[in-house]
Amino acid sequence: MRQKQVKGFQTGDMITALVPTGKKAGTHIGRVAVRKTGSFNIQTQQGAVQGISYQYCTLIQRGDGYGYHSTPSINHQGGAGQTVV
């Protein structure tokens, strides 16, 4: 493969894949590795998920050479994901 982008995605992008049915059904969030065929691999915190179609993928952040991950933030005031200053 010598294409920089496949179906608007490139290796290193952070994506969310919502797979409705099948063996790999569910929500997968992680770094994508693209294939020319449009079937992608996603590296999640739980491990790699192979063969996810581009049709189920939504871009979160473009790959810029840095490694990112998401962690839930918990507030001690009783709310999740809220920042108290």
Describe the model.
The protein is mostly beta strands and 85 residues long. The radius of gyration is 15 Å and the shape is globular. The model has no long low-confidence stretch (mean pLDDT 83). It has a 5-stranded antiparallel beta sheet with strand order 4-3-2-1-5, with no helix packed on it. The protein has strands spanning 14-19, 26-33, 39-43, 48-53, 57-61. It is built from no helices and 5 strands.
In percent, how helical is the residue content? under 10%
Give average pLDDT, whole number. 83
Helix tally equals: 0
Order of helices and strands: EEEEE
Brief summary of the model shown:
This protein has 85 residues and is mostly beta strands.
Note the topology:
Blueprint: E1 14-19, E2 26-33, E3 39-43, E4 48-53, E5 57-61
Antiparallel strand pairs: 1-2, 1-5, 2-3, 3-4
What characteristics describe this protein?
single chain, 85 residues, mainly beta, 5-stranded antiparallel sheet, 5 strands
